[in-house]
Amino acid sequence: MVDATESHPLIERYYAAMASGDDDQLGALYADDALVIRFAGSVRGRDSITDFLRGVRAEHRPFELHSITRVRAAGDIVMWDALITTGVGVLQTTDVMVVDDDGLIDHHVLGNRGYWGR
């Protein structure tokens, strides 16, 4: 089970791994059979998710987190808003993660609320 004070470090580790480009660090956050859901479909499995997120980083480099707000948690579900500056513009996102009993991401819904291109 996750509470709001436990969820923020997981979110911070996710964005630190995204910004650093450390695929091992990023992949280690996800369960072996995790699922990432996005508007264009889904990606299943730690290795496939790592490959997908590597592509996201390459497309949006540099990747700088500005803020995390409205962190909410209920049981094993964590939700938050983030503002991210990238090489292609500013992204405003709302993400949802389902965390397993080992503290790994089991499901991750990537949600873009707004995008302002350069």
Largest sheet: 7 strands, mixed
Indicate the low-confidence ranges by residue numbers: 1-7
Number of helices: 3
Beta-strand proportion: over 45%
Structural class: alpha+beta
Helix-strand string: HHEEHEEEEE
Q: What fold name goes in the CATH topology slot?
A: Nuclear Transport Factor 2, Chain: A
Domain unit count: 1
CATH class: Alpha Beta
CATH architecture: Roll
The best one-word shape is globular
Distance between the amino and carboxyl termini:
40 Å
Helix content: 25-40%
Secondary-structure blueprint:
Elements: H1 4-20, H2 23-27, E1 30-38, E2 41-44, H3 46-60, E3 63-74, E4 77-86, E5 89-99, E6 105-109, E7 112-117
Parallel strand pairs: 1-6
Antiparallel strand pairs: 1-2, 3-4, 4-5, 5-6, 5-7
Tags for this model:
seven-stranded mixed β-sheet, Nuclear Transport Factor 2, Chain: A, 118 residues, alpha+beta
